[in-house]
Design a protein that fits this description.
Rossmann fold; about 40% helix; five-stranded parallel sheet; 16 helices; alpha/beta; single chain; Arc Repressor Mutant, subunit A
Length: about 475
C-alpha cells in the first residue's frame, strides 16, 4: 500500500481527492500545515509522495525545508493562473506540479508515476541492458519481443532462444552442437543437425518477410553467427556538448519542435541530443549516459518507445504532447513514463519540469554511489573505493581484472551479467579472443581465491551459455 501525505488548510482540497483514491492501493493522510507534515515525517512514518497545496504562497518557502530533510517526491498543487507560484515551487524542490483545474483521474496517474519512480530509485537496482539493437532490429530479452523496422516479428520459443543466443554474442560463431546444447538443453547428436537447420531456416524466412537484410548467416556450413556486415561499431555519444551541462535524449520530435526544445532547455544549461529512430535511441542509451529521455507522444503509436526505453534505463522518461489527452497520459504512465506534460506548442514549465526530474534522478544516483561503495554478501565484503576484498577478517588478494569481474557481478545483484558484457567492461574493447575461455579461466581463479576453506560457500554461479551471477 502506497501512502500520500497531503498538506492543505483548505477542506475542499481534501474533498476533491478522497474519491480519487477510494478503492485503490494508495491511501491519503491529511494534515493542515507544513509544520504538521514535518512532525509526522519526523515520526518515521513512511510516505511515497507528499502533496502540498501552494495556493498560499507561504507554503512555497517551506517546500525547501522539507526537501533539505527528506528525499520523498513532492507534488505542488496550484492553479495554472499563478505560473509564478509553480515556477518558485519547482525551483525550491518540488518534483512535479499539478494544475488544480485538471481532473482527479489525471492527478491519480501523476501520483502513480511518482510512486513508481520513487520505488525504482529506492530499490537502486542496476539495469542490465535487456534490450539489444542490431541494425533496424530491436530484441527485448525480458519480454521476448522482437521488432524490425517497427514491425513485430512473431517467433516460437526456440526461434527466439536461437536469435537471443546469437544477438547476445554478436561477434561469436556458434556450432550446431553449441546452439543445440544451449537452446535444447544438451544431448546433441549429429542426427539432430537438421533440427537446428530447419528451425534456423524458419527464423530467417520470418525475418525475410519483413526485410531484405540478412541478419543471420550459415558460417561455412559449420554453424551460425550474426552477419558481420550489419554489426555497427559502438561509439559512445558524449554526455554533453557544454561543460557541466546535463544531457537529455529526445525521441519523436519534428525538426522545428526539436529546435524549440533545444532553445528552451539551453536556458537551464541542458543539452539535447536527438534520435532519428527508436533503434538509434536505444543504441544511444546503451552507449551514453542521459539524465532524462523526452518522448513526443501526441498519439498512442508515439508511446511505443516508452516501454523499450524503460527497459534500458532508470533515468526519468517525460512524454510531451500538444494535446491535453487524458487517455494518452494514462497510457504513457502505464507503459512506464514518469511524467506527462501538455506543452501546446509553447513548452510552458518545460525547464522547471525537466530540471526537477533530473535533480531527483541525480540525487538518487549519488545516494546509490555512496551506499554501494562498500558491499557485503554474507562473509564477503567488497570496498570499491579501496579495491579491497575480505571474507570475514581474511583479506583476499585479487588482480585488477579479478577485482573488476567480482565488482561487476555484485553490481547485478543476482541478475545474470553476460560473457559479452564482462569482456567489454573488463577488457574495454581489447579482448583478443574468439571464445570466452580466457574469461572463464580468470573467473575460475577468482572462485578458487574466494574459497578460503572447504566450508566456504560458492559466491559466483556460472549460467551456461549466458554469463555469471551471484549465488542466492
Amino acid at each position: 500500500m502506497q501512502k500520500i501525505l497531503a498538506v492543505s488548510g483548505n477542506v475542499e482540497f481534501y474533498l476533491k481527492f478522497i474519491p480519487v483514491f477510494t478503492g485503490s492501493d494508495i491511501s491519503l493522510r491529511m494534515v493542515m500545515s507544513v509544520n504538521d507534515a514535518l512532525d509526522m515525517l519526523a515520526q518515521k512514518d513512511e510516505f511515497s509522495v507528499i502533496l502540498i497545496d501552494i495556493s498560499d504562497s507561504t507554503c512555497i518557502e517551506q517546500i525547501k525545508e522539507i526537501r533539505l530533510k527528506y528525499t520523498i517526491p513532492l507534488i505542488a498543487y496550484a492553479s495554472a493562473s499563478k505560473p509564478e507560484y509553480i515556477t518558485d515551487a519547482m525551483q525550491n524542490g518540488a518534483d512535479e506540479y499539478f494544475d488544480s483545474d485538471e481532473s482527479g483521474e489525471s492527478f491519480f496517474s501523476s501520483v502513480q508515476a511518482l510512486c513508481r519512480r520513487y520505488s525504482n530509485y529506492g530499490n537502486k537496482k542496476k539495469k542490465s541492458h535487456s534490450i539489444k539493437t542490431l541494425g533496424n532490429m530491436i530484441v527485448c530479452l525480458n519480454t521476448r519481443r522482437v521488432l524490425i523496422s517497427g514491425k513485430n516479428l512473431n517467433l516460437t520459443t526456440k526461434e527466439f532462444d536461437m536469435l537471443a543466443l546469437l544477438i547476445r554474442n554478436e561477434n561469436r560463431h556458434f556450432t550446431y552442437e553449441a546452439i543445440y546444447n544451449d537452446v535444447w538443453d544438451g544431448g546433441y547428436r549429429d542426427s539432430l543437425k537438421n533440427t537446428i537447420w530447419s528451425s534456423m531456416n524458419r527464423l530467417n524466412m520470418k525475418i525475410k518477410d519483413i526485410t531484405s537484410v540478412k541478419y543471420i548467416i550459415n558460417d561455412h556450413e559449420s554453424g551460425y553467427k550474426i552477419n558481420p556486415e550489419i554489426l555497427v561499431k559502438k561509439n559512445s555519444k558524449p554526455i554533453s556538448d557544454i561543460q557541466n551541462a546535463e544531457a537529455i535524449l529526445a525521441i519523436g520530435y519534428a525538426d522545428d519542435e526539436f529546435k524549440t526544445l533545444e532553445q528552451v532547455l539551453s536556458v537551464c544549461d541542458i543539452v539535447c541530443h536527438r534520435a532519428e529512430s527508436l533503434s538509434d535511441a536505444l543504441t544511444m542509451l546503451r552507449d551514453g549516459r542521459y539524465s532524462l529521455i523526452a518522448i513526443k507522444g501526441d498519439v498512442s503509436e508515439g508511446l511505443i518507445p516508452v516501454m523499450y526505453v524503460r527497459e534500458m534505463t532508470l533515468a526519468p522518461v517525460l512524454v510531451t504532447s500538444n494535446y491535453d489527452d487524458m487517455k494518452i497520459k494514462s497510457e504513457a504512465i502505464e507503459k512506464g513514463a514518469d511524467g506527462y506534460l501538455h506543452i501546446n506548442g509553447a513548452f510552458e514549465f518545460l525547464c522547471e519540469t525537466v530540471s526537477a526530474m533530473i535533480r531527483r534522478y541525480n540525487e538518487y544516483s549519488n545516494c546509490e554511489k555512496e551506499e554501494l561503495s562498500v558491499i557485503s554478501f554474507g562473509e564477503l565484503t567488497i570496498n570499491k573505493n579501496s579495491r579491497r576484498v575480505f571474507i570475514g577478517d581474511h583479506e583476499i588478494d585479487l588482480t585488477l581484472k579479478e577485482f573488476d569481474i567480482l565488482s561487476l557481478i555484485t553490481d547485478y545483484k543476482g541478475e545474470v551479467i553476460t560473457y559479452e558484457q564482462l569482456t567489454e567492461l573488463v577488457w574495454k574493447g581489447n579482448y583478443n579472443s574468439d571464445s570466452y575461455k580466457p574469461l572463464m579461466v580468470l573467473v575460475g581463479k577468482l572462485k578458487d581465491k574466494l574459497k578460503i576453506n572447504e566450508n566456504s560457500p560458492e559466491y559466483i554461479v556460472n549460467i551456461r551459455g549466458m554469463g555469471y551471477r551471484l549465488a542466492s
